[in-house]
Amino acid sequence: MEGSSRRSLVAARARLDELTAVPPPGVTTRSRHPVDLARLADDFDGVVDLLDREPVVRRALADPGVPGSARSDLAARLLDQKISAEALDVLQVAVAGRWARPLDLRRALSELGVEALLAQAQRENVLDDVEDELFRFGRILNRTPELSLALSAPAVPVPTKQALVARLLDGKARPVTARLIQRAVAERHYGDLERRLEQLTVIAAARRNRLVAVVLTAVPLAGDQIYRLRTAISRYFGRDVQLQVDVDPAVLGGVVVRVGDEVVDGSVSRRLTDARRRLHR
Fold first, then answer.
1. Nearest C-alpha neighbor of 229 from the set 207, 250, 247, 214
2. pLDDT digits (tens, 9 = 90+) for 41-81
3. Predicted model pTM
4. Which of 246, 272, 276 is nearest to 258 (CA)?
5. I want to staple 72 with a disulfide (CB 3.0 to 4.6 A). Which of 92, 143, 234, 237 is the partner?
6. What does the alpha-carbon distance between residue 226 and residue 228 come to, in Å, rounded to a whole number?
């Protein structure tokens, strides 16, 4: 992807991270039910299918001559109630971005589907297993030309390939791993299947290395506030950070940020507590 498309993908991925962030062990959140990540991946796949079937829609949603807000509104009109609210939220961020080519938007949505499944693995604490299983299946393909051909040949229907993957991995790999490989055999535009599995392994590793910041606020944050906060925390830790934003009226004002065992308490309630302590000295 060219620069503008990459930046648009980064923005959409950041919004997905905000919706799917897994809090550190021992940290609970109150303001939001867990996102159905399997459905989220299905919704992205459904939008990709729509873009494949309807080139006019694909061009309209990625048209750089139309304001991003108008494209976002068009996505809402087309897909409201047809996909989950979370999927529509991320989609609107994606289509509001600038895409060098309409096909870049299609590819980005496919990548977001992968990220949703990896977020599911992360939530289930099996992301390391999934990464390892993707790598090992790629090595099996490398050593078994017959299997590689069966899963890559254009003449073999995609459902047949996916059924073969399901039989091979039944009871031998995590369900998320099997689903990711089934997606990979259907993604002809990526070319070589073994290379695509290597890419998935890299994406999984990158996700594993992200930090999660649990942010408590008294009131919901606006999109630009979340973006600035995420940027500041990522800069502070020198790593990409997922945000889990939770509303807690007890905070009163300001924010409390927790990353692992490190807590930065900038809340009004904390300042009031400190003031009371000073008064009683």
1. 214
2. 999 999 999 999 999 999 999 999 999 999 999 999 999 99
3. 0.73
4. 246
5. 92
6. 6
